[in-house]
Amino acid sequence: MAKRCDICGKGPVVGRNVSHAHNVTPRLFQANIQRVKAVINGGVKRIRVCTRCLRSNRVVKAA
Q1: CA gyration radius for the chain?
Q2: What is the CATH number of the domain that holds 9?
């Protein structure tokens, strides 16, 4: 499953782990993606949405 928001397009971001010994290794910061039933164009559809979009009411959840 793609870790990308269907509303805003937020996805994984590349960064680095840095230890106390300053050993640097690559890592991924994953977006917090949830599968929700949402009302889209008058119908109910299952979409992948980040929690920022859910919290800011950019998505109308189905009852």
Answers
A1: 16
A2: 2.30.170.40
Please give the single-letter amino acid code of residue 2.
Answer: A
Q: Across the strands, what pairs with 18?
A: 24
| Domain count for the chain | 1
List, for residues 3-56, the tens digit of each pLDDT value. Answer: 999 999 999 999 999 999 999 999 999 999 999 999 999 999 999 999 999 999
Other beta carbons within 10 Å of 55:
9
* Domain of residue 30, residue span: 1-63
Reading the block at residue 25, the tokens are 């290794």
Q: What is the pTM of this model?
A: 0.82
DSSP class of residue 59 equals: S
